Description:
Number of strands: 11
Strand order of the largest sheet: 4-11-10-6-7
Largest sheet: 5 strands, mixed
Radius of gyration: 22 Å
Oligomer: single chain
CATH architecture of the domain at 49-138: Sandwich
Shape: elongated
Distance between the termini: 45 Å
Amino acid sequence: GEAMALLDHRPRIKFRAEHRLLAGVYECVAINGVGDPVIAAIRVVIHDAPVVSAERSFVHTAVGLRAALAAKLEFAVPPARTAWYRDGRPVKTDDRIVIMVQDNIHQLIFRTVRKTDLGNYTFRAENKLGMADVSFKLT
């Protein structure tokens, strides 16, 4: 990481963690020229509303083909509850329509697209600090 310049020598550092990008591990390194440096670390965790994104919001397919809608859960601390919706209603999964989650990628997979599957979908992530969603059109 980057070194933070201090104005004077002091046993503590104080800053406002106003953005989730300030989360991470901070180290204090003490060097006095005698022996090895002493290092102490602290992990700063920032709580905020979820952030979601999608590379493709329009997915073109054809009846009988496989199709997938993919949303990326960029950030969620505390962890988010996630769900897929079609026209405001929760998507019903079965052997043909499945939800897969790997790492932070949430996919709604249509193993065999039917004409009735075409339409508008939303992926939503929600925690106690807020909600985020991303919309898709399956055509």
